[in-house]
Structures are given as structure tokens and as C-alpha cells.
Amino acid sequence: MKIKNKILILVTLLVLWLLLYLNLSAIADFLVNSILGLDRNTHLTDAIWFFVFEVPKVLLLLTLIVFGVGIVRSYFSPERTRKMLGGKKLFTGNVSASLLGIVTPFCSCSAIPLFLGFVESGVPLGVTFSFLIAAPMINEVALVLLFGLFGWKTALLYMSTGLLIAMLSGYIIGRLKLEKYVESWVYEVKAGRLEIAEEKVSFADRINSGIDAVKEIVAKVWIYVVIGIAVGAGIHGYVPENFMASLMGKSAWWSVPIAVILGVPMYSNAAGIIPIVQALLEKGASLGTVLAFMMSVIGLSLPETIILKKVLKIQLIGIFIGVVGLGIIIVGYLFNFIFG
Q1: Which of 210, 268, 275 is CA-nearest to residue 67?
Q2: Is the model's pLDDT at 250 over the cut of 70?
């Protein structure tokens, strides 16, 4: 298909997307009130309306942003990413690695090959950790869902605090000189220093990358979106506000560390956890506590920790969890203080 035809189709789909997105509330009212004939003043109706409205809203936002990020990602191959971080000094490298973590297509399942590739390329340990923290925590799914559900200020807040945690955690780990806690075989791996020629990619290919990203990511996470929104709908419709305010409110000083402790083993992705976060906030949970819970679920995932055990000794994994966890707790208290 010619590039002009692809662009025409994309513009048409964008117009249809916009029309549908702007009328979601009216569509939800029609389905719940007219088609199902439910009384709006009941807990069940509130829960169903929340579900009917939020599922297409989140999926529409997710599709659009993942497509755009898919195009951006086509500019960042693993080889190019390693070259961009190689030779960076501490702190400068932490900043660069954290920023790259937002736009590069890596998740916890890529932890070992990325770690090996960075070490082989001479990327400092602390810089590597900044990247490994930022990549899963500040991902496009989290940002688009936060933007769609809470607005750009909350999304920017999440991205800024996530970047700060990634930068400072990597910097601290780098300053502690913990290379001795990396498994010895990692440094024995001799990477071939062959220069891989950067392949020229046309804009049509980049559009295809965006389409492929939608097929891969949305197809993988849509079920988590539905499940997360279903749980959020239940909380939205039935959980009393004073219950959540007492459990995760600002007045409960212990709520932030407990939220982090509970979040680490509760592995989920952003698509599944953020609709639950929305419902918790609506029921009186404080922003800092909920933000700490979400960051621990996404940024300190149990699968990534288990995977990293193959290349890191337990001491370094413990320091990694401790430093990141402490940063998340501080952020939670800070935002409870500011926005409480």
C-alpha cells in the first residue's frame, strides 16, 4: 500500500476515533439507561456505568498512544540505545538512561539481555540500573491511562517522580561501587565488537511499526484493562468512601509503607492496576499512598527481581529493592503532604 493511502486511512481513522471518544458519555448513558433500563441511583447502576464508560475510553486511548509510541520506538534499536548510554559519566548517564527508559521498547522480560549488553558496552552499573528502573515503571501504557483517567497533571507528576526515582536510585547504586555483587560470569562474557550498520527505515515502515505495536501490546493487555476496570467498578459502586479513607488516607501514617510492601508481590501491569487506582482515589484514598502502591506494583515487579537473580547476587538485589522502595515511600509521603 502506498504511503499516501496509508496516511489517508490513518487520518480517517483518527477522525472516527475522535468522534467516538467525545461521545462516550452519551453512549454509556444510552446503553445503561435506555437499553438496560437501569435506575441511575443504585450502586449496581453506578458500577455498570463506570465499566461501560471506562472500558472503551481506556482502550481507545491505549490504541492511539501505543501507535504513536510504536513509531517513536522505531528510532531506538537496542544497539543504538547501548551506544547512546556507553561512555556516559555517573549522573549524566543516570539522567540519559532514565529518559531513554520512557521511550525504549523494553520490559522486565528483557532484563538479562539488556543488562549483559550494557555491561559489555561499558555502561556503568548505576546507569544500567537507572534504565532498568525507568523502562518498566514509566511506560506508555501507564502514562496514557493516567492521562485519560486523571488528566495531564497527574500523568506528568507520575512521570516526573518515576524519573526522579530512577535517576537517584541508579546514582546511589553507582556511588556505592557494587560491581562485586554482579555474578562473575557476566564480566567474562566477551561481546563481539562488530559495528552493526544502522538500517535505513522508511516512514512507511515506521507506520507499520506503530500498527505492529498496537497489535502486540493492545492484544496482550486488553484483558487486564477489562479486569482492572471491573475491579475498579466494584470499588466505585460498592466500597464505602470512609472505609478507603481510613485504610489508605493521609491520616493513616503507616499506609504508604504498607502500600509498597503489598504492591511488590502483587505483580500486574499498568493496564490492570491503574483503573483500580482510579477507583481507590474516588473513594477517599490519598494520592501519595495510591501512587506509592502503583509504583511498587509496576516498578518493583516480582518477575523482574527473579529474572535479575541470574545476573546479580542477592546482596545487590536487596540493595536495589531497598533503594527504590525507599524512594517510592518518600514520594508517597511527599505527595500526601502536598496534596493532602
Answers
A1: 210
A2: no
* pLDDT digits 0-9 by tens, 293-328: 888 877 776 666 776 777 788 888 888 888 888 888
Q: pLDDT for 125-136, tens place per residue? A: 888 888 878 877
Residue 128, in any domain of the structure: yes
Q: Indicate whether 138 belongs to any domain.
A: yes
Q: What is the pLDDT of residues 40-76, one digit of tens each?
A: 778 788 788 888 888 888 788 778 877 876 776 676 6
Closest residue by Cα to residue 302 from 312, 317, 313? 317
| Grid cell listed for 183 | 555474578
End-to-end Cα separation, the chain, in angstroms: 54
Residue range(s) defining the domain that contains residue 145: 65-186+215-340
What's the angle, vertex CA 62, arms to CA 58 and CA 67, rounded to 5?
160
pLDDT for the residue numbered 78: 54
**pTM to 2 decimal places:** 0.61
Query: How many domains in the chain?
Result: 1
Domain membership of residue 51 (yes or no) is: no
- Cα dist. 83→87, 106, 173, 310 in Å? 8, 16, 21, 24
Residues 6+ apart with CB under 8 A from 157: 291, 335
- Joined together, the cell numbers standing for residue 279 give 477507583
Question: Which residue's C-alpha cell is 507499520?
Answer: 208
Q: What are the Cα distances from residue 224, in Å, to 195, 220, 269, 317?
A: 40, 8, 8, 28
Residue at 301 is within a domain: yes
